[in-house]
Write a structure and sequence with these properties.
This is Neutral sphingomyelinase (N-SMase) activation associated factor. 24% of the residues lie in helices and 28% in strands. By secondary structure, the chain is of the alpha+beta class. A seven-stranded antiparallel β-sheet has the order 4-3-2-1-7-6-5. A four-stranded antiparallel β-sheet has the order 8-35-34-33, with no helix packed on it. A four-stranded antiparallel β-sheet has the order 9-10-11-12, with no helix packed on it.
């Protein structure tokens, strides 16, 4: 228009495809015109004629041009009309997928006549929301980049899904599907940086650099941009209310407006991520997009992005500015802060922007941010994003920003529907909710050391007066030995095997500080010498099978549980039964021991806690055990285990529920229904932060102790009956009889070791993780050692 200004232009309603195509062509040419001098406008008539001719010739194309196939032998699977999504532009065309390639042919021939992606190069594909509707598909040919190779918007979900599942099936052997839970476990364990984890969460939450209304979101992590030292920021900006009176006033005004609103109410009139906010940061590298949003002009110089500190202050103290940051602030490329195009943006910035950018990256990976990042994730991607938790956290935005807030397809009036879609695109969209329960905290080095020192009892500290540094060195050496053992667990080698039972072995264990192993269960307890490789002793307690056994802390007494509801105590030095504990109304399934307390799990739906102590007599007979607590469950308890420090108890039931108990108060801390059948085995990780469970549903679940969240689910090809694990890897006994070494961070089997001819039902590992004993339904006991 006159004065070199771009403004809206009214056109008659045309077909959807033609309208989309016209808009994309107009955008391409209008940006070029906006950069020209007024003298160039006289060429507009010629360009308009060219566009019209181009339009007519290309609209005549109603399907994909198969002459563009790279191979004449290619077999097309399907094709349909789509739009290629790029920032602020959706370019219409046709997509065609064959048994070798994915093709997109834009109607206007931009950016090229045909875009081709080889299917064997694809590493990741994601279904996307577009305008809060399930119409998008994004394809990546790299593992770590957050910019994709192509983003397509379909006109119906069925076409999108057909192409998605076709590619997923074709790439089944070439790609690994990751979930938010699997990334969470890697992040918690320190295998992903905070930056990498946030990129993965953004990607899973439908954020894309091709869609400015759903651009990736990153948090503010610095509270002070004037100090020479890093200052950590809390997840919620309202947490600093006590430090800033203006923030208190802003919050009060927003709350008052919220309370006075009719339903649906919202606290914020703008969003924390929108095309305008994204381009506010990226104007120096994407000026054409800013010109498009600002009607051909740049914003006033005072409102341009010139200072990170001033921007943070406006967000903290303003009642209309709530923007978050973008990934570029934490990357290694500072070019988005540099005016390399010599654009006339008003007042120029100094070098402080780049300095603050380097501080951002340092602060993001700091211990303070690592310990508090989960709180921000709760607000943006987690359980505080919606509902009553969002209200309590002052985290309620306009209803149109949430998925499901409105059904645009149900709006019959086309003008009203277009207006609604435009509002959604320009206002911003809340990310897809990834977590519905509190996000667990990251395991930082400081917390890990505290947990380790409290949960590993060094025998050196108990037997000799050593210094704290020596004790710490011993623990470090032991810890390193365990890590080395697990790193070489694939080298586990069979030493010997022994068939000594009539029926299959339900359980096996090894005597501590003794060259003797205990094996059960028909109705007898059998002792086997590991040194002499021969049978030593056999003891019968009941006419029913024994279910489990364990060595008590004195190293001289064995407790055996039975299907006859009793627990039997056996003295190894005296070779006879000491006592019988009749404590349950059904079979005792498993036991565990810590200090002087015995925990017995039973199919009568209880776990009972007993205090047992020796009376010190010459017969070494034990006194009557005193019942301390009875922990009720809904169904029979099939497995139970203690944390290394003995402060937590986990129980697994026949209904698939995991329950975590505080052993000092006997209160329930968490209850998680995570399996679809009986839980075979559950155990804490060495740092007590996680629980691994296996069940009859073929699933392996990793549960965060602090939050009760299932942070990883692995679906195996066979039932896993028992296991030992170190928090990252698990050695499991399978239904097939093999031992399977699992990498839980990637959900893959790294080694399959042939072992038994029937299901592996029991497994024991020594403290240094260098010796393993397994028992199976083939009535065999197998000894294993790690070979260097």
């Amino acid at each position: 228009k006159e004065s070199n200004v771009i403004a809206p232009y009214r056109i008659e309603r045309v077909s959807r495809l033609k309208l989309s195509f016209v808009c994309s062509l107009l955008f391409e040419h209008f940006f070029l015109l906006s950069l020209h001098r007024a003298s160039c406008l006289e060429k507009l008539g010629d360009q308009t004629a060219m566009i019209e001719a181009n339009l007519q010739s290309r609209l005549a194309r109603s399907s994909f041009d198969k002459n563009c196939f790279q191979n004449v032998a290619e077999k097309p699977h399907m094709e349909c009309e789509v739009e290629m999504v790029t920032p602020l532009v959706s370019n219409p065309g046709h997509v065609c997928i064959t048994d070798e390639n994915l093709y997109f042919q834009p109607l206007n021939g931009y950016p090229k006549h045909v875009i081709q992606i080889k299917l064997n190069r694809v590493r990741r594909i994601y279904k996307r929301r577009h305008c809060l509707r399930p119409l998008g598909l994004e394809v990546f040919c790299t593992e770590n980049d957050f910019c994709s190779d192509i983003y397509l918007k379909f006109y119906n979900t069925a076409d999108r899904d057909e192409i998605y599942y076709y590619i997923a099936t074709f790439l089944e052997n070439h790609m690994t599907e990751h979930t938010a839970e699997s990334y969470m476990l890697q992040w918690q364990r320190g295998h992903l940086s905070n930056y990498q984890y946030l990129l993965h969460l953004n990607n899973l939450a439908d954020r894309s650099c091709n869609d400015l209304s759903q651009y990736p979101i990153f948090p503010w992590v610095l509270a002070d941009y004037t100090s020479a030292q890093l200052g950590g920021l809390t997840a919620n900006r309202w947490d600093v209310c006590g430090q800033n009176l203006r923030v208190v006033v802003v919050l009060f005004c927003l709350q008052a407006r919220y309370r006075g609103m009719p339903e649906p109410r919202f606290m914020y009139g703008s969003h924390y991520s929108s095309p305008g906010y994204v381009l506010f940061y990226l104007v120096r590298v994407a000026p054409e997009h800013m010109l498009c949003l600002q009607n051909g002009r740049y914003d006033h110089a005072d409102r341009m992005f010139n200072s990170i500190g001033e921007t943070w202050k406006n967000c903290l103290e303003g009642a209309t500015d709530f923007k978050e940051l973008i990934p570029e602030f934490y990357g290694n490329d500072f070019s988005f802060l540099e005016n390399k195009m010599s654009l006339d943006l008003g007042r120029r910035q100094n070098g402080s922007l780049v300095i603050h950018l380097m501080l951002h990256r340092t602060a993001l990976e700091s211990q303070y941010v690592s310990e508090h990042l989960h709180e921000w994730i709760d607000l943006v991607f987690g359980f505080k994003q919606r509902g009553s938790e969002a209200v309590a956290a002052h985290n309620v935005f306009h209803p149109l920003t949430y998925e499901g807030g409105i059904d645009c397809d149900s709006i019959e009036d086309p003008d009203e529907r277009i207006a609604m879609l435009t509002q959604i695109l320009e206002f911003g969209q809340t990310p897809t909710q990834l977590f519905c329960t509190p996000h667990p905290q990251r395991i930082t080095p400081r917390f890990h050391n505290i947990t380790r020192s409290s949960s590993i009892n060094s025998p050196v500290s108990e037997l000799s007066p050593v210094s704290q540094s020596e004790d710490s060195s011993f623990e470090d050496l032991t810890d390193e030995s365990r890590k080395l053992a697990w790193a070489n667990m694939s080298n586990l080698t069979r030493v010997s095997s022994h068939k000594i039972h009539k029926d299959y072995n339900r359980y096996s264990c090894c005597l501590y500080h003794s060259p003797v192993s205990l094996f059960i269960p028909d109705s007898t307890l059998k002792m086997f010498s590991k040194e002499l490789k021969e049978f030593q002793r056999s003891m019968s307690f009941s006419n029913m099978a024994l279910s489990s056994c364990l060595m008590l802390a004195d190293g001289k007494t064995v407790a055996c549980s039975s299907w006859d509801n009793n627990v039997y105590f056996y003295s190894v030095p005296y070779g006879r039964r000491q006592d019988t504990l009749m404590g349950h109304d059904d079979a005792v399934s498993e036991m565990c021991w810590f200090d002087d307390r015995l925990y017995t799990a039973s199919w009568d739906s209880t776990v009972k806690v007993w205090q047992c102590a020796s009376d010190g007599s010459s017969s070494h007979k034990r006194s009557q055990c005193q019942l301390l607590a009875e922990l009720e469950h809904d169904t029979g308890v099939n497995t139970a285990g203690l944390s290394p420090a003995g402060t937590l108890l986990v129980s697994g039931c026949k209904d698939g529920a995991i329950t975590i108990w505080d052993t000092s108060s006997y209160e329930t801390l968490q209850q998680v229904h995570c399996h679809a059948g009986t839980i075979h085995h559950a155990a804490f990780s060495p740092d007590s932060r996680h629980i691994l469970s296996v069940g009859a549903d073929f699933c392996m679940k990793v549960i965060d102790v602090q939050t009760g969240m299932v942070i990883s689910t692995v679906k195996a090809e066979e039932e896993q009956r028992c296991f030992c694990w170190d928090g990252n890897s698990a050695l499991c006994g399978g239904q097939s009889g093999d031992l399977l070494l699992w990498d839980l961070l990637s959900s893959t089997v790294t080694k399959r070791i042939p072992a038994h001819s029937g299901a592996v039902t029991a497994m024991w590992m020594n403290d240094l993780c260098s010796t393993v004993i397994t028992g199976g339904e083939d009535r065999q006991m197998i000894f294993w050692n790690l070979q260097s």
